[in-house]
Amino acid sequence: AMEKSFVSMLLLLIAISCALAKDTGKKDSKDTTAKPKLPQTLSRGWGDQLIWTQTYEEALFRGKHSQKPLMIIHHLEDCPHSQALKKVFAEHKDIQKLAEKFILLNLVYETTDKNLAPDGQYVPRVLFIDPSLTVRADITGRYSNRLYAYEPSDISLLYSNMQKALKLLKTEL
Q1: Residue-level pLDDT at 29
Q2: Which of 4, 36, 129, 163 has the greatest count of CB atoms below 10 A from its CB?
Q3: 3-state SS class at 58
Q4: CA 26 to chain centroid
């Protein structure tokens, strides 16, 4: 009888230690997801403290419902022009401040919406969309062959275009 209770006691101990191990495993994975890591990864370096949307659909939805303009940046991680623009954009204090007034999205892939490539699928390109979900063809960069392209040297033009997008909102809506 003694032996039998010893075995069942041992089995009980094993069961308890397995359950504890399972719990601690679960707790770890929960901790990592609980941390607000999203903005960092979604920013892809364009402004880690800014709030970025995950998809074009989400950006449109939020733009429409918040009455804020959308700013969409198409870029590629291995494109030196994209990298150069990203660097000046992220380091430009006034732009980072102004960007808080926009619904923001940066994409490393093309959307199926042809409106986002009015004159081609080049990168980097930056488009503004107002809350009526109209792509603002009137807010462009300085290049006639690539209307929505910006070089790092055009950062002040991009800044004034951001101001323009916000002004249009006040006058038109």
Answers
A1: 47
A2: 129
A3: helix
A4: 28
Give percent above pLDDT 70 in the chain: 76
The pair of structure tokens assigned to 60 is: 């449109």
Q: Are the C-beta atoms of 75 and 85 separated by less than 8 Å?
A: yes
- DSSP string of 142-163, one letter each residue: S-SSSTTB--GGGHHHHHHHHH
- What gap in Å lies between CA 50 and CA 102, rounded to an integer? 10
Note whether residue 11 is domain-resident. no
In the predicted structure, residue 26 carries a pLDDT above the cut 60: no
Largest CA distance in the chain: 92
Q: Is residue 95 one of the residues assigned to a domain?
A: yes
* Number of domains composing the chain: 1
Beta bridge partners of 106: 73
- CA–CA distance, 46 with 77 (Å, rounded to integer): 11
pLDDT at 169: 75
